[in-house]
Amino acid sequence: MNLRNLRVEKPSLEFIAFLQALGLVAYCFLVSLVMAGLNQTFHNLPMPVLGPVIVLTLFVASALISSSIVLAYPLVIFWNQKNTTRALKLVLETAAWLAILLVVITTAILAAR
Fold first, then answer.
1. Contact at 8 Å (CB) between 54 and 41?
2. What is the domain range of residue 39?
3. Please, are residues 78 and 87 in contact by the beta-carbon 8 Å criterion?
4. In 10 A of CB 113, how many CB atoms?
5. Cα distance between residue 4 and residue 99, in whole Å
6. Which of 11, 60, 62, 90 could form a disulfide with 15 if both were Cys (CB 3.0 to 4.6 A apart)?
7. Residue 1 confidence (pLDDT) above 60
């Protein structure tokens, strides 16, 4: 078998959007675990201002990481391929997948009660 003749198809835009949304949901889950741990660890801080500083720093870092997960590849499509339509479509499809995953997760949580 000649490996040079093997063609690997690129994943579809819809699949990439699904993976980005799934990655963002996984990241949000990890951040919520960290925040729950911080709540228990830093419940009685010697300086009350440290709690909000830690939360705000985590929030800013989380916004940066979340935007990187969702917007990095569309920016590559826009910048390198000069394809604005495809980049915007990927962002919108990622948002749609996020909404779908939110409904599925919320429904599963409510059904488990």
1. no
2. 13-112
3. yes
4. 4
5. 40
6. 11
7. no
Tell me the one-letter amino acid at 105. I
At residue 53 the predicted structure's pLDDT band, cuts being 50, 70 and 90, is: confident
What gap in Å lies between CA 67 and CA 96, rounded to an integer? 16
Domains of the chain: total: 1
Residue 12's pLDDT band, with cuts at 50, 70 and 90, is: very high
Domain-embedded: residue 7: no
Query: Residue 98 and residue 105: Cα distance in Å, rounded?
Result: 10
Distance CA 76, CA 74 (A): 5
Arithmetic mean of pLDDT, 17-25 = 97
Identify whether 65 is part of a domain: yes
